[in-house]
Fold this sequence. Notes:
The protein has one helix at residues 2-15; strands at residues 42-48, 53-59, 66-75, 80-85, 91-96, 101-107, 114-123, 128-133, 139-144, 149-155, 162-171, 176-181, 187-192, 197-203, 210-219, 224-229, 235-240, 245-251, 258-267, 272-277, 283-288, 293-300, 303-313, 318-323, 329-334, 339-345, 351-358, 363-368. By secondary structure, the chain is mostly beta strands. A hairpin with a 6-residue loop joins β2 and β3 (66-75). The strands form 7 sheets. The chain has a 4-stranded antiparallel sheet, with no helix packed on it.
Amino acid sequence: MEEYMRATCLRAAVLGFLTVLSSSCGGGSSAPTSKPSCTATTFAYVTNSLDNTVSTYTVNSCTGNLTPTTPDTIPTGNAPYGVAVDPSGRFAYVSNGDDTTLSMFTINSSTGKLTPNTPATIAAGNGPLYVVVDPSGKFVYAANSADNTVSMYTINSSTGNLTPTTPATVATGISPIGVAVDPSGKFVYATNFTDDTVSMYTINSSTGALTPTTPATVATGINPDGVTVDPSGKFAYVSNGKGFTVSMYTINSSTGILTPNTPAVVATGSLPASVALDPSGKFAYVANGGNDNVSMYAVNSGILTPNTPATIAAGGNPDLVAVDPSGKFVYVTNGNDNTVSIYTRNSDGTLTSAGTAATGNSPISIALTGTTQ
């Protein structure tokens, strides 16, 4: 419990929201999955919540190592949290929790450098956290934790600038944190931290506006945080911070409604903050903020089964776990260490440590460019 409240209170203090929590905040490996290819140039971006910057890197496509670009950071708004890149790798978006804005950037395809758009920001709701771009690259969605909404935008395909939809927001449950779009671009899911639910929506393919499903929510474990959809679009997963579990669901391909699998949950480590799947959908990874490690799972018909070994060490207070689009590498942001842990993926889905990369102060999110393989 003390570890849970420490991590939860740190998150609330960093971003200055989720006031609902304030009263509680007291005193050898297998062979690689494929032969490495060292030709593609890809980039990675990490939000540094206490520096008000994004760290930028080139990704070594053979080793997975991150090399800082020149310059190595770019300013954002206050308390940057989520970061997302569009599928083409041309634009990046950062949610600024204390500014109630999203920063908009254009990506230099040769160097990875971020250049602020004009204007540099667009208004969001109160306390925007995770942000996501839909698979078509047409729409952006941001979870606004302090006003219980998701902001909705269309993307200008030439400039990358965002325009709010009409209406500009849709209601969620209480304190939404995570947001995800399914691979077909038909459905959106938002985790509601305080009321232990996931909100479910259908996407208007013309306007990007979201419509709640009927029913509008499904139950999760305690304090849901991250949410992701597998590459097939058949299954969804939610990390439950205080539940020490991942909830597993099957997606109705017509309605988008989530139905709990049997079993409905799988155990994680302490304070699971995020969950990610590899591009094949065969393996899953969970960052456990209370144990400073990553849980590793095999996936079979939507069910997660702990791998052997079941965990691998990360840095201090790991938050977001991401698999690179090639499927060869996994990255985890470590909020207390100011690092990103780097791993190579083995053919059985287990991870091998490949070192770390330095970040700014209190990294939270990471996003990578590249083509899914």
